[in-house]
Structures are given as structure tokens and as C-alpha cells.
Amino acid sequence: MKDLFRTKIGRLRVIGYLEGISLLVLVFIAVPMKYYFGNPSLSKALGPIHGAIFLLFLFNTLSVGVEQNWKFKTTTWRVILACFIPFGTFYIDSRILSKLKEKE
User: Fold this and answer.
1) Beta strand ranges found along 1-104 (DSSP E)
2) What's this model's pTM, rounded to 2 decimal places?
3) Measured between alpha carbons, how far is 49 from 97 in angstroms, rounded to an integer?
4) Burial of 59 (0-12, 13-18, 19+ CB in 10 A)
5) pLDDT in tens, 17-26
């Protein structure tokens, strides 16, 4: 686990997990609580947190993409698109990010 924090790709993977978890909690727990049970407190608390993690994921994806010379049409757009889809960041992590090696 400590190895993930030593590289930019590892940090992107950790941020991806956090973004994915926050999106799932927001979509499947906070939004139903708000609209079906009339309790918007979790949405109000989690919304800004998810937004910050989302932006952090986007900026880190672009940063790693430039550093690793990813082709935008083949890799970068897929990683960015994943953060809009529930479970997308977990899929992208297993398909793309876990297989990448840090460039020297």
C-alpha cells in the first residue's frame, strides 16, 4: 500500500478509489435520502467533498497523462470518462492504471 503513494500513478489510483467511493455514496445513499426521505444533510455534506475529489482526480489524470505521454484518444479520455460513471474508476483502475509503470 505504501508503494501507491510513491508514484504519481499510484496516487492517481488512490484518488480514483476515493472518487469512486464518494460517487457511489452520493448516488446510492445521499441522493435517495434527499429525495425519498426528505433529509438533504448527507448530500449537503458529501457534495462539496465529492466535488473536490473529482477535480483532484481530473487534474491528476491530466498531469499523469502529460508526464507519461498518454495519447488522449486512447488513454486519457477513458480515464476521465470513468469518473462520471458509477464503478467507472474501479474498472479503469483494473484495466489501465494497475498495468502502467512509472516512466523514469
Assistant:
1) none
2) 0.87
3) 23
4) exposed
5) 999 999 999 9
